[in-house]
Amino acid sequence: MPQITVGSQAPFEVASGTRLVNALEDQGIDILHRCGGNARCTTCRVEFQAGEPSTITKAESFKLAEAKLTGVRLACQISCEADMQLQPLMTLSDSGLPDPGPRPADSITPEPEWLERPL
C-alpha cells in the first residue's frame, strides 16, 4: 500500500488506486476541491517533494496549461500507486469558504486519458 506524507506529518497508508484528493480528505488533510474533482478549478493543487507520478491526465495537463501553472499537480487527477511526499497549496482554512467543495467520485473524472508527464 502506498504511503503518503504531507508536510512534516507522519505518513499514512492508502489503498492503491485511491484518488489522492480523497485520500487526503479522508485523513483530515485541509485541501480544497471546489469543482468536485473534475479538473476544472485547480483548487486541489499540490506540490510534490518526492514521488510525483510520471503520468498526467490529459484533462490535468490542459487545465494546468490553461491556468499557466507550473510545478504543481491537481490532486483530483492523481491515483495513489506509489509513495508520495507533498503539500496541499490551497486550503479550506485559508479560503474563507464554508466547505472544501463536493466530494469527488472514487474514480478519476473525467475519464482519464494518460500522458507521460513532461520533465
From TrEMBL:
Residues 2-92 form the 2Fe-2S ferredoxin-type domain. GO terms for molecular function: iron-sulfur cluster binding. The keyword Magnesium does not apply. It comes from the Bacteria. Pfam families: Fer2. Residues 91-119 are annotated as: Disordered. PANTHER family: NA(+)-TRANSLOCATING NADH-QUINONE REDUCTASE SUBUNIT, NAD(P)H-FLAVIN REDUCTASE. This is (2Fe-2S)-binding protein. It comes from Herpetosiphon geysericola.
